[in-house]
Amino acid sequence: MVEAEIPADHPRHDSLVTRHRVEAGVEKGITSRQGLIAQGRGEAFDYLLGERTIPSADAAARAAAAHLLLADHPVVSVNGNAAALVPAELVALADAVGADLEVNLFNRTEERMRAIAEHLRDHGATGVKGLAADARIPNLAHERAKVDADGIADADVVLVPLEDGDRAAALSDLGKVEIVIDLNPMSRSARVADVPVVDNILRAIPNITTHARELADADRPTLERIVGEFDPEATLAAAERAIRDG
Amino acid sequence: MVEAEIPADHPRHDSLVTRHRVEAGVEKGITSRQGLIAQGRGEAFDYLLGERTIPSADAAARAAAAHLLLADHPVVSVNGNAAALVPAELVALADAVGADLEVNLFNRTEERMRAIAEHLRDHGATGVKGLAADARIPNLAHERAKVDADGIADADVVLVPLEDGDRAAALSDLGKVEIVIDLNPMSRSARVADVPVVDNILRAIPNITTHARELADADRPTLERIVGEFDPEATLAAAERAIRDG
């Protein structure tokens, strides 16, 4: 069965699509071993969450959209799993909010960097950043610290899908507004985020895009109100309750 | 850092050892892609369980040991993740209870079968089964149904570490006593087991061996009492509570 043949109303639709894209990611040299293990961790948390977008995650997606629209220079950071799972969806989000896409890998090799940039371009991206690597995030090991001077180094709002607790903490220390997508509400990435979106990336990215399109004509005070009313701690507590209570 | 250098009292000891062995498993062609994803799912459940053996899992390990000692022909089924994670521990358990080790893979290839059998022999196993594949489990797809006529097909008690819900159900339908090690108490494997051990395989296998050595001189009525008093449903409920309540 190819992905296009999976019926949209199949009860395991997201899970089957995910499996297909992860396999393709491995074939293309995009998905790493650690990426496969991280994928499994995500599956378990999503299973406990009921494989749905809970109300608090939807509110977080709306706050994320407002932050991205308010930003002077929003950047969407892309790692191997994000590129494998939602390449077209990341491009659509970047278009909707005028953000740059920048590739950043936990296990950085030039080969994987190029494969991921090409994969994003195959899905419509123009001007993928991350390959220049002419700036550094302070207080992080060398390879993981590499960013583009005109990308994440210059951004005021950064969306970081999926995990790397150290990097999430280092970006937060730089005073950037950080939006994190992570299915584990107890993770360090989720805890340091200004906006933690506890949801499957397959649902979260299109949902942020939908909110951004709805808010495209909203005035600045409206966006600032949405951002100001968002409570990251209450959001994490609601997500943890949903996971624990089933 | 090589595995021997990880201090036994390191707070993340099990997690670091696991990471090392999974990596080595990939290098040796033992661990599959699906195995890496399954490893991640296990990590998430173990995290929620507090990365410890809960009392109900210890009671299950004791009942598992009693079943294995009472058996006429106990067999320990070994898949890629089990072989990568606890090769020496599986050999020690098989020795302690007089069980056969039989390799059975969800994604069976002759190459992986041989790599896993060799890995077990490197860790002291003699007479690894699974390569003859001269019998079938009814009601299962061809490759996953393959077993040895003088191994699992002939066994009265089978220990199945880690997941494959369909295979666990088919073995249970054959009327064999089935011991399952699975960190997800809601999984089908755990639910069809006579003895579900909801614990990390890294802790569960040595723990079953310890109980088996303690019970080595116990008489039959004592072993039968331990087996008779074990309640799989209460065990699963306790594990689910531990995961949900944190």
Automatic annotation (TrEMBL), chains A, B:
Taxon lineage: Archaea, Methanobacteriati, Methanobacteriota, Stenosarchaea group, Halobacteria
Task of the protein: Catalyzes the condensation of (R)-4-phosphopantoate and beta-alanine to 4'-phosphopantothenate in the CoA biosynthesis pathway.
Annotated organism of origin: Haloplanus ruber
HAMAP family in UniProt: PPS (MF_02224)
PANTHER family assigned: 4-PHOSPHOPANTOATE--BETA-ALANINE LIGASE
Name the record gives this protein: 4-phosphopantoate--beta-alanine ligase
Functional pathway: Cofactor biosynthesis; coenzyme A biosynthesis
Pfam families, alphabetized: PPS_PS
Binding positions (ATP): R19, R41, D182, L183, N184, R188, S189, N200, I201
Subunit structure: Homodimer.
A molecular function GO annotation: ATP binding
